[in-house]
Amino acid sequence: MRTDYDRIAALTHAVHSIVRHARRIQVRTPAGTNLDIELNPRRRWKLSTGFIHQQGGWSNLPDGELYTAPWNVNGTLVVDGCLGDWFKKYGEIHNSPVTITVRNGRALLRSIHCANGEIEQNLRTYLKQHPNSNRVGELGIGTNFELTDLIGNLLLDEKFPGIHVAFGDPYAHHTGAKWSAPSHIDGVLRRCTIVVDGRKIMKNGTFAPELLRATQIKR
Is pTM, for the whole model, over 0.90? Predict the structure, then answer.
């Protein structure tokens, strides 16, 4: 929370400069995530840097992320970090990861698997509450490089370096998506490898050296 937000902002903007016009992002993790994500450059990225520039604005602390609403998502998502929403959380689930098949931007409910049967059933119920509740509404990239581990608190853990994926509301007022949902549940991944239009910007949870150099601000 007390990190140097000039440095967090510098990294966030450096990542944004790469993804803002991107068409495709691939995400892989040792736990089994294998996602192919299509982007639409007309969908905006929201940058959360820790800085508030308008009176009356607000932000979560600690901060450090950027996110958009993806155009389409296909593949396997294995949530092995933190799972939850603002109102109900499952917390840190490293020992009981959730596997979800995503096809044409939606979670296949019958594919959801977790060793913890209660989480598995609750997630299926959560994603059935509205026609758009199982739709991928957010792709987020955490940029708070001072975070060294997950603690099971979603609003902190989604700032952890790597990827988080949410089903449900796409925050249309920020991203420009044309749909909505009354629900929004995030899954945070560990040890991500991220490839943007063929360029690797993160390997096994560590940003590429050229991006980390952006944090070395001369004062």
Answer: yes
